[in-house]
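Aim 2 progress update. The chain analyzed this quarter is reproduced below.
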Amino acid sequence: MAHSLNFALPLFAAMIAGGVIGFEREWRGRAAGFRTHILVCLASALLMEAAVSQGGWRFDALPGSQIVSDPTRMAHGVLTGIGFLCAGVIFRAGFSIHGLTTAASLWITSAIGLLFGAGLFPLGAVGTALTAAVLAVLRLVDKSLPQNLVVDGEVTWRREAFDVESQVEAALHDVGRARGADRFDLVDGGDSVRRSFRLTVKGATELKPLAARLRGIEGVTGYVLDPRDD
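Predicted structure tokens:
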């Protein structure tokens, strides 16, 4: 019973740690949420426990040989493999790269699972608390500070429409358009022009007047204003 408890405690601790971190991501509506973080942390703890318990593996050593356990090799393999999972939550939309924070949370969750699997409970608990603080508490602090909001946008207008581009530029200029981030595409079989850009605004409240102004430009057939939120 005592031997089984020694194996179970790191796994339960890893599940709790993964749940604490994953809850914040789930609350934010991210692709990798509560269950994903629990599974990542649990898998890391399981593999690390297997690595530190190589003496109990069922295999016969060659006569005269000596087996030396090196659990750090398992840690290297786990952290390398978790990179493929992290890559799955990172995607590009316009000029922005989304999902970096979620990928980082998966990576550190895996590291915390390895700590619990190795029996380093205090270090794993501290890592869990600090990670939760970075994701939740520091986000609240960040919102309270004066900051600019980066917005990726697209405007589409009919190719034959007269003077639409100058009106669009004027609308963007009034809210502080960032320079050097424009892209032009000819779409709809050459019938429409699509312009992609990046805006830096003082807050989301500036987007509503901009959207209303773009709607009022004759010839504009569509637009997208996408605030960054990782």
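The first strand starts at residue 91 and ends at 93. Residues 134 and 141 are 10 Å apart (CA to CA). These observations will guide the mutagenesis experiments scheduled for the next reporting period.
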